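Re: beginner question about structure tokens

> Can someone show what the tokenized structure looks like for a real chain? I only ever see the sequence side.

Sure, here's an example I had lying around. Input first:
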Amino acid sequence: MKALLLNGSPRQGNTRTALEALKKGMNQLPDMDIQQINAAEAGVSPCIACQVCGSNSYCVADDDTNDILDAVAEADVIVFATPVYWWGMTAQLKVIIDKFYSKVKTLNTLKKKVGVIVIGEAEQDDPQYEIIPKQFECICDYLGWDVVFSKTYTADGPDDLAKSEADMEEIGTLWKLL
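And the corresponding structure tokens:
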């Protein structure tokens, strides 16, 4: 089984901590191949709506887009993890997701299990914890992918999540839902 973890955070903070806990759990599965892409380190340019991809199913940009989209297509499991930036996912992750358009004819024929992890500073009753998971739900509905978990966490400082035993334990077991 191939798993792709898409990390939307540009920092070494709570989102990376969450993905490390998830990976630790996932490594318990035999034959689990885990790849992580850190969106902030990927060289992906924004979509320019050139529409060339509609006829060739790949992006014409000379960057990391096509390699990332190939990894998305090959994965059985995709986990999107993002901190909250202005009631949304990070721009670094969004630019990658926008490029899904260039391979949509392939991506929407592939069955995927999807996990979503959202980490913000606000308390759990804040609308950001409804908006962001809903956006991922809409993306997955469009592509015919199955969201098997969508979890939100509150963490203010860069190491707050690691200090929450309950949250870390839960994240460490999310792989069982995949």
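Each token stands for a local structural state, so reading them left to right follows the chain. Residues 10 and 40 are 5 Å apart (CA to CA).
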